[in-house]
Write a structure and sequence with these properties.
- By secondary structure, the protein is mostly helical.
- It has six helices and two strands; from the N terminus they run αααββααα.
- The chain has one domain.
- The chain is elongated, with a radius of gyration of 23 Å.
Length: 170
């Protein structure tokens, strides 16, 4: 049962990370960058797009590290995955906040309902927190599963250090 839950969580992590940071954040950043180059958006949006690209890339790198940490001897990737994922999320959420502040002041609505642009981007980018939350859960799970390996390695080092010295004279 535990293995089935783990496989389902892995599949959800792959799907969510491909959709939200892998597609939504990257496409939003690409759109901002394109509009800056076309002269429709101010230059600050090229900075926003850089940080959004970087944040999405860090989250995806964290997901790869999370899967690498499944093997007990690579347990250090759990920490790397968690830290990189959190930094990427903070980067994306900061850019989202800055964009929404700018959009509420300078952009009109979209479509017949005149939905604010900031709401549209919030709906697209805010769900980035779901794959990161799932990644943190899996990192903790990996860390707990690698506990036996770490204890065994520690005991092996202690045994080597406390081993009897070889005799010099016979």
């Amino acid at each position: 049962m535990k293995k089935i839950i783990r496989i389902c969580m892995d599949i959800f992590l792959i799907i969510l990370s491909l959709i939200y940071p892998g597609f939504m954040a990257v496409m939003s950043a690409a759109g901002w960058d394109y509009n800056v180059k076309q002269g429709h958006y101010p230059e600050i949006f090229s900075v926003y797009s850089f940080w959004m690209f970087l944040g999405a890339g860090l989250i995806l790198f964290g997901v790869v590290c999370c899967f690498a940490a499944k093997k007990p001897k690579f347990y250090i990737f759990n920490t790397i995955s968690a830290v990189v994922g959190i930094i990427g999320t903070v980067s994306c959420m900061t850019v989202l906040h800055q964009f929404c502040m700018y959009a509420e002041q300078n952009f009109s609505g979209i479509g017949e309902s005149m939905q604010p642009v900031s709401d549209l981007y919030r709906d697209r980018i805010l769900p980035i927190v779901f794959p990161v939350f799932l990644m943190l859960i899996l990192d903790f799970w990996n860390f707990l599963e690698s506990r036996e390996y770490r204890i065994q390695k520690k005991n092996q080092k202690l045994a080597e250090r406390n081993a009897e010295a070889p005799k010099i004279l016979e």
